[in-house]
Structures are given as C-alpha cells and as structure tokens.
C-alpha cells in the first residue's frame, strides 16, 4: 500500500485528502490523480464542494428533457422522473441533516434512488422508448453520480467516530 499522499499508477484505491500540485500533464502520477481531479484549462484542479449537487441537478434536467419526448409508458416515465430528481433532493436535504446518522441516511437514500433510476432507464431502453445513445448517456451520468455518492457515504461512515 502506498504511504505517500500521491500514489503511482497501479495503486488506485488509495485516497488522499491533501492537496496535490501537478505542474504538467506528463507527471507519472497523472493517471492516479484523474479520478480525484478534473482538467480545467490545462491543469488538474480539485472538484468544487458543490459539484455533486450540480451534477444531480443537471442530470434531473436532462432526464426531464428526454422524458418530455417519450410517448406512451407514462407510468414508467413518471417513475423515472421521480427517482432521478429525488437523487438531488435527498442530497440537498442531507446538507441540513439533524445528526451525522441522519446525514448518512439521506446520502444512502440518494444512492438507492440512483440505483432505481438505472432500473427505469434500462426498462425504457428495452421497451425502445430510449435510443441506445440516450440510454448510454443517461446511464453513464447516473453511474458517475452513484460512484460519487458511494464515496461520500463511505467517507461519512469512516468519519463517524472522528466527529460528534
């Protein structure tokens, strides 16, 4: 296991909370840093604190726009709209949680809603109400949000004993 704040390629899974300055894109550590950092203007910068919330809002709007075009299957479309928008709603509610346990619970509900969203997306795709391109785009965005939520839940649970 890597002991440093930066791990070389091949030792993924080690998460560092320290700042990492990457001066150029040729660094041997760049592949490891990509999951934590996103490229902006030729340099890698840490994602902003509210980025997950913005991702959830953008995703819900995208789903809503696509659902407006779907004819038939109104029950399935309604379910997809509800669960896809619920991801961000529960994440927003977690911000105002009454306790750490309540915070974790809200994040876990968001995570469950992301799994449900993936189910309804697949169902509509199999019924040929979503094109393969739409399905892949929405599934990938939902998967990205889901992975971020998993990381958030894991971190919150790990820090449960560190804070009141």
Fold and architecture overview:
With 164 residues, the protein is mostly helical. 60% of the residues lie in helices and 5% in strands. Strands 1-2 form a two-stranded antiparallel ribbon. α2 runs antiparallel to α5 and α3 packs antiparallel against α4. It is elongated and about 50 Å long. The protein starts with 29 loop residues before the first helix and ends in a 6-residue tail after the last helix. 20% of the residues are buried. The N terminus is likely disordered.
Residue ranges: pLDDT <50 for 5 or more in a row?
A: 1-37
Mean pLDDT: 78
The number of helical elements comes to 5
Relative helix content: 55-70%
Radius of gyration, whole Å: 18 Å
Give the spatial strand order of the biggest sheet.
1-2
Taking the sheet with the most strands, its summary is:
2 strands, antiparallel
Order of helices and strands: HEEHHHH
The count of DSSP E runs of length 2 or more, i.e. the number of strands, is 2
Beta-strand portion reads under 5%
Morphology: elongated
| End-to-end Cα distance | 30 Å
């Amino acid at each position: 296991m890597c002991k440093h704040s930066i791990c070389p390629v091949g030792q993924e899974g080690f998460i560092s909370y320290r700042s990492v300055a990457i001066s150029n894109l040729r660094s041997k550590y760049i592949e490891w840093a990509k999951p934590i950092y996103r490229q902006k203007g030729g340099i890698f910068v840490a994602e902003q604190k509210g980025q997950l919330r913005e991702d959830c809002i953008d995703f819900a709007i995208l789903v809503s726009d696509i659902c407006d075009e779907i004819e038939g299957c109104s029950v399935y479309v309604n379910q997809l709209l509800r669960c896809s928008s619920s991801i961000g709603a529960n994440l927003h509610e977690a911000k105002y949680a009454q306790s750490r346990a309540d915070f974790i619970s809200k994040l876990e509900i968001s995570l469950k809603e992301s799994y449900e969203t993936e189910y309804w997306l697949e169902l509509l795709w199999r019924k040929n109400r979503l094109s393969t391109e739409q399905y892949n785009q929405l599934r990938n965005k939902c998967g990205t949000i889901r992975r971020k939520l998993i990381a958030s839940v894991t971190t919150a649970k790990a820090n449960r004993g560190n804070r009141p």
